[in-house]
Automatic annotation (TrEMBL):
Alphabetized InterPro entries for the sequence: Chitinase_insertion_sf (IPR029070), GH (IPR017853), GH18_Domain-Containing (IPR051887), Glyco_hydro18_cat (IPR001223)
Record keywords: Glycosidase, Hydrolase
Residue span(s) of domain GH18: 1-116
Annotated organism of origin: Agelaius phoeniceus (Red-winged blackbird)
GO molecular function, one term: chitinase activity
GO cellular component, one term: extracellular space
Listed PANTHER family: DI-N-ACETYLCHITOBIASE
Gene: Ctbs
Protein name: DIAC acetylchitobiase
One GO process term, biological-process aspect: oligosaccharide catabolic process
Gene3D superfamilies (alphabetical): 3.10.50.10, Glycosidases
């Protein structure tokens, strides 16, 4: 089915699925793969998050969901509008801190998105 990626059931504390069913991909790798992916960048309006789809070398279908500056800025604006005390993000060390110009721009945009 289009845009459906099933995860194996890997129970954790009563939840039917856990992060053990997938794997974390560094933001740098995502930024390099998204443009050459099967789908290109897609947007889920319900989750307010980007994702893309690809097939690996053996034809297995994959989806990669992530946050980008746009999705983080929407979440940060929501936090601010509700008067909540803060926002966090998962693994800022997954950003690309190399001295490549594109990497520096992407990393800076991610950190700036946290301030609505």
């Amino acid at each position: 089915q289009e845009h459906v990626c099933s995860l194996p059931k890997v129970p954790f504390r009563g939840a039917p699925c856990s992060d053990a069913a997938g794997s974390q991909v560094p933001y740098a790798a995502i930024m390099k793969q998204v443009n050459s992916s099967l789908s290109g960048l897609l947007w889920d309006e319900v989750q307010k998050a980007p994702f893309y789809e690809y097939k690996d070398s053996v034809g297995q279908f994959h989806q990669v969901w992530f946050d980008d500056p746009h999705s983080i800025s929407l979440k940060a604006a929501y936090v601010k509008s509700r008067g909540l005390r803060g926002i966090g993000m998962w693994n800022g060390n997954s950003l690309d801190y190399s001295k490549e110009a594109a990497a520096e721009q992407q990393t800076q945009a991610m950190w700036q998105a946290l301030t609505p």
